[in-house]
Amino acid sequence: MDATALQRQNRRIERLKSQGVSRSTVLVHEECRPVLDSLRPHFIDPEKAETLSALVEQLHKKVKPTNVAQVRHLSPFRYPGGKTWLVPEVRQWLLAAKQRPSVFVEPFAGGAIVGLSVAAENLAERVFLCELDDDVAAVWETIFHGSDDDVSEFSRRITTFDVTLDNVRAILESKPRSPKNRAFRTVIKNRMQRGGIMAAGAGLVKEGEAGKGLKSRWYPDTLAKRIEVLRSMKDRIDFEQGDAFEVVRRFADDPEAFFFIDPPYTAGGKKAGSRLYTHNEIDHEGLFALMASVRGSVMMTYDDAPEVREMAQRHGFRIELVPMKNTHHAIIHELLILKP
């Protein structure tokens, strides 16, 4: 290219920049090149942004939900809002990142299946879990910060517990003072109350699986094994009982921090969070604003509601739809809200 042609090209590039158009290099498979070439004229038209976004959403949209039976179960909890189905999405998100996360932060930990999976697969330098609920926190406090004797006693009580209605009620009505005793009561509550609901007012399992009643969700040896595995990962996991917003702010300036945000679903008029969780009052607008301000990468998960989509778009997040099965085995879609 001669000097005159080069000057002409530079002037064109500068003119396009003034119109908001910039040059970008992409890698493309030869099978996809014809499609890219046909789309190329649309990339400089700002009026096509919404259409192209919808196309990308369709490309990311899965047809079938994740088979949760193929995901390793690490958490001792069973949660109606559990995220086992999302583990493959998080794994792909982390593996596609340009850098290994310095820390993977899950500030609304709950059953913490996502953070536990990241630690087990060594996908981040360390995992930081935070949970506000006293009962749930007692379990994580015992497993990750208790003494070896505390953890052994915790597991032993689980494997030797005689599941009868009287014994279950006696544990649920007790007022434990130590974290390990509170942790045991929490596991009983989580396994014996309908649907794993931890909030006050939940009734006990009646029929259960195959008419087994209270014993239908009680797998003591499995629970003890999970506790043993988690205990072996204690050097990779930090746990803290506290406020999720404060934890996010602590890591907000780390560009290599990755945040997984799964708050109680009370946005958009949803009431599930208030029924399922003790702490369900969340400032969703404030949460979106906070997550938009962090320097690291963010993945949030929410029910698909117009109010949530509006908040995500207003704060510059990208939205993907991911299918999952609800408790009635119907396929529904949840939103993945992402910040690169």
From TrEMBL:
The keyword Nucleus does not apply. It comes from Marinobacter nauticus (Marinobacter hydrocarbonoclasticus). SUPFAM superfamilies: S-adenosyl-L-methionine-dependent methyltransferases (SSF53335). It holds the Pfam family MethyltransfD12. GO terms for biological process: DNA restriction-modification system; methylation; mismatch repair. This is DNA adenine methylase. One of its GO terms (molecular function) is sequence-specific DNA binding. Keywords: Methyltransferase, S-adenosyl-L-methionine, Transferase.
